[in-house]
Amino acid sequence: MKKHTLLVGLLFCTNATASLIQGHEIYTMFGAGFNNDNTQFQFTPGFQISNRWYLESTMLFDYDIDMYSYSSNSKLNQSTDSFSVALTPLYMYPVSEYFTSYAKLGGYFAKYKSTRNDESNNSVQLLEKYSEDGITFGVGLQYTTTGPTMGETMLSARLGADWYNKGYTPKHLDKRPVIGIQMGLVF
């Protein structure tokens, strides 16, 4: 009985989701985000809510290793691992047949971890581990083909700048934006 109830519930949720997104665009974009000397992998899925409004989530992945040598028999590797996810409503305004400008405002959550590995004695030391949340906003320009390139799928490319406000006050605003270059598919 429980299996049948679970199956009926799953079919209902799948049908409701398909009905909700029918006739609306869904997109996925992959690319890189640049901030100072740091390059991060970006992944952005999103879907259309109404005529010009979208809801999207941008994820940034970063892994950085710095190597230090203090003596001939001591090598230190310091690594920093970070992940952040933002959820933002997005407004797109058509500039031409192919280009749309966009603006977005929402929230984000990030986790950071920094470790030091001493190769001479195989020890790993945790330096820092913390998380933060705050407000994010961004602007950009997006190019989308007008007709399908593969089946019903259109090709899209985006150039944008996102700012991350650590905390919820203007004094914590990171003045250097993450410049993102992404390509993806619109379904």
UniProtKB/TrEMBL annotation:
Pfam families for this protein: OmpA_membrane
Keyword flag Ion transport: yes
InterPro entries: OMP/PagP_B-barrel, OmpA-like_TM_dom
One CC-aspect GO term: pore complex
Leader sequence residues: 1-18
Residue ranges of domain Outer membrane protein OmpA-like transmembrane in the record: 35-146
GO molecular function: porin activity
Keyword Ribosomal protein: no
UniProtKB keywords: Ion transport, Porin, Signal, Transmembrane, Transport
Family (UniProt): Belongs to the outer membrane OOP (TC 1.B.6) superfamily. OmpA family.
Protein name: Outer membrane protein OmpA-like transmembrane domain-containing protein
Origin organism lineage: Bacteria, Pseudomonadati, Pseudomonadota, Gammaproteobacteria, Vibrionales
